[in-house]
Amino acid sequence: MSRIIVNTTLPKRPYQTPTDRPIITTDRLILKASTAEHEAHIHALRTQEEVMQWSSSGHVDADLAATRRSMAAWLAPHDIETWNYVVFKRDTGAFVGTAGNYRRAGTQGWPELGYMLMKEHWGMGYATEILRAFLQVWWELPREKVEVEVDSETCVVGTQMGEAMAGEAVVDEVLVAEVDILNKQSVKLLRKFGFEVAKIWQDSGNGKVYDLETMILRDKRGV
Description:
Blueprint: E1 3-11, E2 24-25, E3 29-33, H1 39-45, H2 49-52, H3 64-71, E4 83-89, E5 95-103, E6 112-117, H4 126-140, E7 143-151, E8 156-157, E9 160-161, E10 174-180, H5 184-192, E11 196-205, E12 208-218
Antiparallel strand pairs: 1-7, 2-3, 3-4, 4-5, 5-6, 8-9, 10-12, 11-12
Helix pairs in contact: 1-3
């Protein structure tokens, strides 16, 4: 991994407080800013093995305290630079999952996209509906010029991407998603929205080695 310092744009900080962020309504879902009051829902999500096998931790939360530690990454004071939603069904109010940007500077130095859905709601097209809504809001956020340290393989200038961009002073903004190669459904979904593979690498944890794809979505606001 080669890190370089580049100039780019990112959503302007501080973000709106969660209580001031607009609620998003889609055909079937309601997306609300995630707050501490949603910890019971998120704990239920993070104790489903089928869900957590694809997470960065790779295992379910042992208790509510573990869920709270995870949530701390995007709750105050970090909510000035994270943009996360909890998702509910419009017709029944049932909790569906979470989605959003939970780290402004992720593994590759860029903002990271993450999403998890309760297993009961898989295969219904909800993930597509959620990501479509989130990405629209994400690219509409006000921007600021910033200097950041990122992995050179994720750098984009125009149509070019990767190591060739290491000497560039200014690069295009991207949104990153880290995906286990075996998680075929997520890879397929992200490709549907224009994400492309920037690099493939290995990570380890819980006695296992994971093959990961770093997928990036280019900033196409000016295209």
